[in-house]
Protein backbone atom coordinates (compact mmCIF):
# COMPACT_ATOMS: atom_id res chain seq x y z
CA UNK A 1 0.00 0.00 0.00
CA UNK A 2 2.88 2.40 0.77
CA UNK A 3 4.25 1.81 -2.74
CA UNK A 4 0.85 2.65 -4.23
CA UNK A 5 0.43 5.82 -2.15
CA UNK A 6 3.89 7.17 -3.03
CA UNK A 7 3.24 6.47 -6.71
CA UNK A 8 -0.09 8.28 -6.53
CA UNK A 9 1.39 11.26 -4.62
CA UNK A 10 3.92 11.77 -7.43
CA UNK A 11 1.17 11.60 -10.04
CA UNK A 12 -0.98 14.01 -8.04
CA UNK A 13 1.88 16.50 -7.65
CA UNK A 14 2.23 16.52 -11.43
CA UNK A 15 -1.52 16.87 -11.90
CA UNK A 16 -2.10 19.86 -9.58
CA UNK A 17 -0.09 22.33 -11.72
CA UNK A 18 -2.35 21.77 -14.72
CA UNK A 19 -5.52 22.38 -12.72
CA UNK A 20 -3.95 25.51 -11.22
CA UNK A 21 -2.54 26.79 -14.51
CA UNK A 22 -5.81 26.32 -16.40
CA UNK A 23 -7.39 28.72 -13.90
CA UNK A 24 -4.72 31.37 -13.33
CA UNK A 25 -2.85 31.58 -16.64
CA UNK A 26 -5.91 32.91 -18.54
CA UNK A 27 -6.41 35.48 -15.77
CA UNK A 28 -2.74 36.50 -15.94
CA UNK A 29 -2.95 36.80 -19.72
CA UNK A 30 -6.06 38.99 -19.52
CA UNK A 31 -4.42 41.30 -16.97
CA UNK A 32 -1.39 41.57 -19.30
CA UNK A 33 -3.62 42.85 -22.10
CA UNK A 34 -4.50 39.66 -23.99
CA UNK A 35 -7.95 39.43 -25.58
CA UNK A 36 -10.47 36.61 -25.36
CA UNK A 37 -9.25 35.09 -28.63
CA UNK A 38 -5.66 34.90 -27.41
CA UNK A 39 -6.87 33.46 -24.12
CA UNK A 40 -8.71 30.80 -26.12
CA UNK A 41 -5.44 29.97 -27.87
CA UNK A 42 -3.70 29.84 -24.49
CA UNK A 43 -6.28 27.40 -23.15
CA UNK A 44 -5.91 25.26 -26.26
CA UNK A 45 -2.11 25.12 -25.95
CA UNK A 46 -2.34 23.19 -22.68
CA UNK A 47 -3.30 20.28 -24.91
CA UNK A 48 -1.06 20.94 -27.92
CA UNK A 49 2.03 18.94 -26.92
CA UNK A 50 0.05 15.93 -25.63
CA UNK A 51 -1.84 15.65 -28.93
CA UNK A 52 1.39 15.00 -30.81
CA UNK A 53 3.49 13.24 -28.17
CA UNK A 54 1.19 11.25 -25.84
CA UNK A 55 1.35 8.13 -27.99
CA UNK A 56 5.14 8.42 -28.24
CA UNK A 57 5.42 8.78 -24.46
CA UNK A 58 3.15 5.76 -24.06
CA UNK A 59 5.39 3.69 -26.34
CA UNK A 60 8.44 4.95 -24.44
CA UNK A 61 6.92 3.65 -21.20
CA UNK A 62 5.87 0.34 -22.80
CA UNK A 63 9.44 -0.27 -23.99
CA UNK A 64 11.65 1.31 -21.31
CA UNK A 65 9.59 1.47 -18.13
CA UNK A 66 7.86 4.40 -16.48
CA UNK A 67 10.71 6.01 -14.50
CA UNK A 68 12.17 8.11 -17.31
CA UNK A 69 8.82 9.46 -18.55
CA UNK A 70 7.61 10.43 -15.06
CA UNK A 71 10.84 12.30 -14.26
CA UNK A 72 10.71 14.08 -17.64
CA UNK A 73 7.10 15.11 -16.91
CA UNK A 74 7.97 16.66 -13.54
CA UNK A 75 10.96 18.52 -14.98
CA UNK A 76 8.77 20.00 -17.73
CA UNK A 77 6.52 21.57 -15.06
CA UNK A 78 9.46 22.97 -13.10
CA UNK A 79 11.02 24.34 -16.29
CA UNK A 80 7.77 25.99 -17.39
CA UNK A 81 7.43 27.97 -14.17
CA UNK A 82 11.08 28.99 -14.22
CA UNK A 83 10.75 30.17 -17.82
CA UNK A 84 7.96 32.63 -17.03
CA UNK A 85 9.68 33.87 -13.87
CA UNK A 86 12.75 34.65 -15.98
CA UNK A 87 10.85 36.22 -18.91
CA UNK A 88 7.28 37.23 -17.97
CA UNK A 89 5.26 38.03 -21.10
CA UNK A 90 2.16 36.84 -22.93
CA UNK A 91 4.14 34.96 -25.64
CA UNK A 92 6.08 33.13 -22.92
CA UNK A 93 2.76 32.25 -21.26
CA UNK A 94 1.83 30.36 -24.43
CA UNK A 95 5.01 28.28 -24.16
CA UNK A 96 4.41 27.76 -20.44
CA UNK A 97 0.92 26.41 -21.17
CA UNK A 98 2.40 23.88 -23.64
CA UNK A 99 5.02 22.72 -21.14
CA UNK A 100 2.68 22.40 -18.15
CA UNK A 101 0.05 20.63 -20.23
CA UNK A 102 2.65 18.24 -21.59
CA UNK A 103 4.15 17.53 -18.18
CA UNK A 104 0.81 16.78 -16.55
CA UNK A 105 -0.60 14.69 -19.40
CA UNK A 106 2.59 12.66 -19.96
CA UNK A 107 2.62 11.97 -16.23
CA UNK A 108 -0.97 10.76 -16.35
CA UNK A 109 -0.23 8.33 -19.19
CA UNK A 110 2.56 6.58 -17.29
CA UNK A 111 0.93 6.86 -13.85
CA UNK A 112 -2.01 4.77 -15.03
CA UNK A 113 0.34 1.87 -15.78
CA UNK A 114 2.40 2.27 -12.60
CA UNK A 115 -0.73 2.37 -10.45
CA UNK A 116 -2.44 -0.49 -12.31
CA UNK A 117 0.61 -2.71 -11.71
CA UNK A 118 0.50 -2.23 -7.93
CA UNK A 119 -1.02 -5.43 -6.58
CA UNK A 120 -3.07 -8.06 -8.39
CA UNK A 121 -5.15 -7.49 -11.55
CA UNK A 122 -8.28 -7.69 -9.41
CA UNK A 123 -7.07 -4.58 -7.55
CA UNK A 124 -6.80 -2.52 -10.75
CA UNK A 125 -10.14 -0.67 -10.66
CA UNK A 126 -9.76 0.02 -6.94
CA UNK A 127 -6.23 1.36 -7.44
CA UNK A 128 -7.31 3.56 -10.34
CA UNK A 129 -10.17 4.78 -8.17
CA UNK A 130 -7.68 5.74 -5.46
CA UNK A 131 -5.55 7.51 -8.09
CA UNK A 132 -8.39 9.71 -9.29
CA UNK A 133 -9.50 10.39 -5.70
CA UNK A 134 -6.05 11.82 -5.08
CA UNK A 135 -6.29 13.70 -8.38
CA UNK A 136 -9.44 15.33 -7.03
CA UNK A 137 -7.59 16.27 -3.85
CA UNK A 138 -4.70 17.82 -5.78
CA UNK A 139 -7.12 19.54 -8.17
CA UNK A 140 -8.71 21.05 -5.07
CA UNK A 141 -5.41 22.21 -3.58
CA UNK A 142 -3.77 23.44 -6.79
CA UNK A 143 -6.31 26.05 -8.01
CA UNK A 144 -7.00 27.36 -4.51
CA UNK A 145 -3.29 27.76 -3.77
CA UNK A 146 -2.46 29.36 -7.12
CA UNK A 147 -5.61 31.51 -7.22
CA UNK A 148 -4.98 32.84 -3.72
CA UNK A 149 -1.29 33.44 -4.50
CA UNK A 150 -2.30 35.40 -7.61
CA UNK A 151 -4.86 37.53 -5.80
CA UNK A 152 -2.82 38.34 -2.69
CA UNK A 153 0.82 38.18 -3.84
CA UNK A 154 0.77 38.59 -7.61
CA UNK A 155 1.76 36.80 -10.78
CA UNK A 156 5.19 35.60 -9.72
CA UNK A 157 3.83 34.01 -6.55
CA UNK A 158 1.25 32.12 -8.60
CA UNK A 159 3.98 30.71 -10.87
CA UNK A 160 6.17 29.84 -7.86
CA UNK A 161 3.20 27.92 -6.48
CA UNK A 162 2.67 25.99 -9.71
CA UNK A 163 6.37 25.17 -10.04
CA UNK A 164 6.54 24.10 -6.42
CA UNK A 165 4.35 21.09 -7.12
CA UNK A 166 6.83 19.95 -9.78
CA UNK A 167 9.73 20.37 -7.37
CA UNK A 168 7.94 18.21 -4.79
CA UNK A 169 7.34 15.57 -7.46
CA UNK A 170 11.03 15.48 -8.46
CA UNK A 171 11.98 15.08 -4.80
CA UNK A 172 9.61 12.14 -4.31
CA UNK A 173 10.80 10.49 -7.53
CA UNK A 174 14.39 10.68 -6.23
CA UNK A 175 13.39 8.81 -3.05
CA UNK A 176 12.59 5.68 -5.14
CA UNK A 177 9.71 4.63 -2.86
CA UNK A 178 7.33 4.30 -5.81
CA UNK A 179 6.35 1.89 -8.58
CA UNK A 180 7.83 3.84 -11.50
CA UNK A 181 10.36 1.37 -12.94
CA UNK A 182 13.31 1.57 -15.33
CA UNK A 183 12.14 -1.51 -17.25
CA UNK A 184 8.70 -2.87 -18.25
CA UNK A 185 7.05 -5.09 -15.66
CA UNK A 186 8.79 -8.43 -15.51
CA UNK A 187 11.89 -7.01 -17.17
CA UNK A 188 10.88 -8.31 -20.60
CA UNK A 189 11.18 -6.24 -23.75
CA UNK A 190 7.70 -6.04 -25.33
CA UNK A 191 7.37 -6.78 -29.02
CA UNK A 192 7.59 -3.88 -31.44
CA UNK A 193 4.17 -2.22 -31.67
CA UNK A 194 2.27 -1.92 -34.90
CA UNK A 195 0.51 1.12 -36.20
CA UNK A 196 -1.49 3.02 -33.61
CA UNK A 197 -4.49 3.00 -35.95
CA UNK A 198 -4.70 -0.78 -35.44
CA UNK A 199 -5.87 -0.17 -31.88
CA UNK A 200 -8.94 1.67 -33.15
CA UNK A 201 -10.04 -1.44 -35.03
CA UNK A 202 -10.83 -3.10 -31.69
CA UNK A 203 -14.52 -2.16 -31.12
CA UNK A 204 -14.51 -2.21 -27.31
CA UNK A 205 -11.22 -0.34 -27.05
CA UNK A 206 -12.41 2.25 -29.58
CA UNK A 207 -15.61 2.86 -27.65
CA UNK A 208 -13.91 3.28 -24.28
CA UNK A 209 -11.21 5.50 -25.76
CA UNK A 210 -13.92 7.88 -26.99
CA UNK A 211 -15.80 7.75 -23.67
CA UNK A 212 -12.70 8.32 -21.53
CA UNK A 213 -11.53 11.15 -23.79
CA UNK A 214 -14.87 12.92 -23.56
CA UNK A 215 -15.01 12.61 -19.76
CA UNK A 216 -11.49 13.97 -19.40
CA UNK A 217 -12.14 16.79 -21.85
CA UNK A 218 -15.33 18.11 -20.23
CA UNK A 219 -13.64 17.99 -16.82
CA UNK A 220 -10.42 19.74 -17.78
CA UNK A 221 -12.06 22.46 -19.89
CA UNK A 222 -14.08 23.52 -16.83
CA UNK A 223 -11.34 25.79 -15.35
CA UNK A 224 -11.12 27.75 -18.62
CA UNK A 225 -14.90 28.21 -18.72
CA UNK A 226 -14.98 29.21 -15.06
CA UNK A 227 -12.14 31.72 -15.49
CA UNK A 228 -14.03 33.49 -18.29
CA UNK A 229 -17.32 33.26 -16.41
CA UNK A 230 -15.70 34.60 -13.22
CA UNK A 231 -14.27 37.64 -14.98
CA UNK A 232 -17.60 38.32 -16.70
CA UNK A 233 -19.58 38.12 -13.45
CA UNK A 234 -17.10 39.84 -11.10
CA UNK A 235 -16.04 36.74 -9.16
CA UNK A 236 -12.52 37.07 -7.74
CA UNK A 237 -9.57 34.76 -8.50
CA UNK A 238 -9.71 33.30 -5.00
CA UNK A 239 -13.43 32.60 -5.33
CA UNK A 240 -12.85 31.02 -8.74
CA UNK A 241 -10.31 28.76 -7.07
CA UNK A 242 -12.95 27.82 -4.49
CA UNK A 243 -15.39 26.96 -7.29
CA UNK A 244 -12.88 24.50 -8.68
CA UNK A 245 -12.33 23.30 -5.15
CA UNK A 246 -16.05 22.57 -4.81
CA UNK A 247 -15.92 20.66 -8.08
CA UNK A 248 -12.93 18.65 -6.82
CA UNK A 249 -14.72 17.82 -3.57
CA UNK A 250 -17.65 16.48 -5.59
CA UNK A 251 -15.25 14.43 -7.72
CA UNK A 252 -13.52 13.08 -4.64
CA UNK A 253 -16.82 11.96 -3.08
CA UNK A 254 -17.91 10.40 -6.36
CA UNK A 255 -14.65 8.54 -6.89
CA UNK A 256 -14.52 7.34 -3.30
CA UNK A 257 -17.91 5.73 -3.92
CA UNK A 258 -16.79 3.80 -7.00
CA UNK A 259 -16.78 0.44 -5.21
CA UNK A 260 -20.39 0.83 -4.08
CA UNK A 261 -21.53 2.09 -7.48
CA UNK A 262 -19.94 -0.76 -9.44
CA UNK A 263 -21.51 -3.33 -7.12
CA UNK A 264 -24.96 -1.86 -7.69
CA UNK A 265 -24.83 -1.03 -11.42
CA UNK A 266 -23.04 -2.18 -14.55
CA UNK A 267 -20.29 0.12 -15.80
CA UNK A 268 -22.17 1.31 -18.95
CA UNK A 269 -25.21 2.29 -16.86
CA UNK A 270 -23.02 4.37 -14.54
CA UNK A 271 -21.33 6.07 -17.50
CA UNK A 272 -24.66 6.91 -19.18
CA UNK A 273 -26.04 8.42 -15.96
CA UNK A 274 -22.89 10.48 -15.44
CA UNK A 275 -22.96 11.81 -19.01
CA UNK A 276 -26.64 12.77 -18.93
CA UNK A 277 -26.49 14.51 -15.55
CA UNK A 278 -23.19 16.23 -16.38
CA UNK A 279 -24.63 17.51 -19.65
CA UNK A 280 -27.63 18.98 -17.87
CA UNK A 281 -25.44 20.80 -15.35
CA UNK A 282 -23.16 22.23 -18.03
CA UNK A 283 -26.23 23.52 -19.86
CA UNK A 284 -27.34 25.40 -16.74
CA UNK A 285 -23.95 26.87 -15.81
CA UNK A 286 -24.05 30.02 -18.03
CA UNK A 287 -27.31 31.12 -16.38
CA UNK A 288 -25.86 31.13 -12.83
CA UNK A 289 -23.95 34.29 -11.83
CA UNK A 290 -23.75 34.31 -8.02
CA UNK A 291 -20.88 32.61 -6.20
CA UNK A 292 -22.86 30.35 -3.85
CA UNK A 293 -25.18 28.82 -6.49
CA UNK A 294 -22.16 28.32 -8.76
CA UNK A 295 -20.33 26.53 -5.94
CA UNK A 296 -23.28 24.16 -5.49
CA UNK A 297 -23.44 23.59 -9.25
CA UNK A 298 -19.71 22.82 -9.40
CA UNK A 299 -20.03 20.42 -6.47
CA UNK A 300 -22.84 18.53 -8.19
CA UNK A 301 -20.95 18.52 -11.49
CA UNK A 302 -18.02 16.89 -9.70
CA UNK A 303 -20.37 14.26 -8.27
CA UNK A 304 -21.72 13.54 -11.75
CA UNK A 305 -18.48 13.37 -13.74
CA UNK A 306 -15.91 12.21 -11.19
CA UNK A 307 -16.75 8.53 -11.40
CA UNK A 308 -16.51 8.31 -15.19
CA UNK A 309 -12.73 8.48 -15.68
CA UNK A 310 -11.61 5.55 -13.44
CA UNK A 311 -14.33 3.28 -14.86
CA UNK A 312 -13.46 4.14 -18.46
CA UNK A 313 -9.71 3.77 -17.82
CA UNK A 314 -10.23 0.35 -16.27
CA UNK A 315 -12.25 -0.71 -19.31
CA UNK A 316 -9.48 0.57 -21.63
CA UNK A 317 -6.83 -1.34 -19.67
CA UNK A 318 -8.90 -4.54 -19.97
CA UNK A 319 -9.60 -4.05 -23.70
CA UNK A 320 -6.05 -3.08 -24.76
CA UNK A 321 -3.42 -5.59 -25.96
CA UNK A 322 -1.21 -6.37 -22.92
CA UNK A 323 1.98 -5.09 -24.57
CA UNK A 324 0.34 -1.87 -25.78
CA UNK A 325 -1.41 -0.63 -22.66
CA UNK A 326 0.46 2.67 -22.39
CA UNK A 327 0.13 3.26 -26.11
CA UNK A 328 -3.65 2.78 -25.78
CA UNK A 329 -3.76 5.21 -22.87
CA UNK A 330 -1.59 7.61 -24.87
CA UNK A 331 -4.04 7.36 -27.75
CA UNK A 332 -6.87 8.14 -25.33
CA UNK A 333 -5.07 11.19 -23.99
CA UNK A 334 -4.18 12.35 -27.51
CA UNK A 335 -7.89 12.35 -28.40
CA UNK A 336 -8.66 14.03 -25.07
CA UNK A 337 -6.14 16.76 -25.77
CA UNK A 338 -7.41 17.21 -29.31
CA UNK A 339 -10.84 17.97 -27.83
CA UNK A 340 -9.31 20.27 -25.24
CA UNK A 341 -7.50 22.11 -28.02
CA UNK A 342 -10.22 22.29 -30.65
CA UNK A 343 -13.05 23.37 -28.34
CA UNK A 344 -11.34 26.50 -26.92
CA UNK A 345 -9.96 27.42 -30.36
CA UNK A 346 -13.31 26.97 -32.09
CA UNK A 347 -15.30 28.77 -29.43
CA UNK A 348 -12.82 31.40 -28.23
CA UNK A 349 -14.13 33.86 -30.82
CA UNK A 350 -17.73 33.18 -29.80
CA UNK A 351 -16.82 33.61 -26.13
CA UNK A 352 -15.56 37.12 -26.79
CA UNK A 353 -18.99 38.18 -28.08
CA UNK A 354 -21.48 35.66 -26.68
CA UNK A 355 -19.88 34.60 -23.38
CA UNK A 356 -19.38 31.06 -22.10
CA UNK A 357 -22.80 29.79 -23.16
CA UNK A 358 -21.74 28.35 -26.55
CA UNK A 359 -18.82 26.54 -24.92
CA UNK A 360 -20.95 24.97 -22.20
CA UNK A 361 -23.74 23.97 -24.57
CA UNK A 362 -21.31 22.40 -27.04
CA UNK A 363 -20.01 20.22 -24.22
CA UNK A 364 -23.59 19.32 -23.30
CA UNK A 365 -24.26 18.17 -26.86
CA UNK A 366 -21.06 16.11 -26.89
CA UNK A 367 -21.98 14.36 -23.63
CA UNK A 368 -25.43 13.48 -24.95
CA UNK A 369 -23.91 12.06 -28.14
CA UNK A 370 -21.43 9.88 -26.24
CA UNK A 371 -24.20 8.69 -23.91
CA UNK A 372 -25.97 7.39 -27.03
CA UNK A 373 -22.73 5.64 -28.08
CA UNK A 374 -22.45 3.90 -24.70
CA UNK A 375 -26.13 2.93 -24.80
CA UNK A 376 -25.68 1.36 -28.24
CA UNK A 377 -22.75 -0.78 -27.09
CA UNK A 378 -23.88 -1.61 -23.56
CA UNK A 379 -24.62 -5.31 -24.30
CA UNK A 380 -21.38 -6.01 -26.15
From TrEMBL:
PROSITE patterns, alphabetized: MFS
Cellular compartment(s): Cell membrane
Keywords on record: Cell membrane, Membrane, Transmembrane, Transmembrane helix, Transport
Mode of membrane association: Multi-pass membrane protein
Coiled-coil intervals: none
Transmembrane segments: 36-57, 69-87, 93-115, 127-145, 157-175, 208-226, 232-253, 265-288, 294-319, 331-353, 359-377
Identification of the protein by name: MFS transporter
Amino acid sequence: MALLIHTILIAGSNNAPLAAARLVLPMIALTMGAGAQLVGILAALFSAAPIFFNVAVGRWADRSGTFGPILFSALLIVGASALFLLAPSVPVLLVVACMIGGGAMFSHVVAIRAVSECGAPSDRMRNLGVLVVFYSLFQFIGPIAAGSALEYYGTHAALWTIGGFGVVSVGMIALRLHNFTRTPKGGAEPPAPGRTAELLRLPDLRRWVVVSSLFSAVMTILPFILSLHALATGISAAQAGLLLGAYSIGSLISRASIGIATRLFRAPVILIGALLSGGAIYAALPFIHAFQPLAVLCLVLGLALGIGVPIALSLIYAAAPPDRVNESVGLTMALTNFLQTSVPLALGVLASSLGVGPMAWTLTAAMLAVAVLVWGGRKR
